[in-house]
Amino acid sequence: MKKALLAGLLLLYPLVVYFGLQFSEPALVGGVFAVVLLLRHWLVKDSKATIPHFHVMTISGLGLLLFATFANSELALKFYPVVINSCFLAVFAYSLYKPPSVVEIIAGKFETLDAHGKKYTRAVTKVWCGFFIINGVIATATVFHPDPKVWLTYNGLISYLLMGLVMAIELIIRKWQKAKNKANEMAD
Asked: Can you tell me where the transmembrane regions are (predicted)?
């Protein structure tokens, strides 16, 4: 329950930052989220151990939040989604260089992957890398947009919807691919 609450708070980051900055200083908002991030890291340590370099996100996010706190920087707070997105890109891309890929690790928790499955998860990891590049560029542009609602709308809603869309499309393609591979095996 505590893990889910802390994860939920991190997902609500853009909303809390947007409204938090209307009623308090960036230092307070940054400090609160630095504590939330540390608590989540300590409570969820074991599940992250299977994905190499996942701690890069915690370290980078914490560094930025501490900077935002001590510099009382609204701009630094707005860069948090960009930094986390960049960390995801780095971890996913590095896993292509040094396998297994992140998607293969995650999929391997739910099923045994054959050669087709490993090739497929590698391709999905590349798709996610492309997503993180595009998402990062857009998230960066919203940081500098004069209307803070644009930052909130993209980073607190649209980017999550896009992630969900990529996951849904991938699920459909995966089911289709599995059926195709099974049909090919039966034909052989």
From this structure: 27-44, 56-73, 79-97, 127-145, 151-173
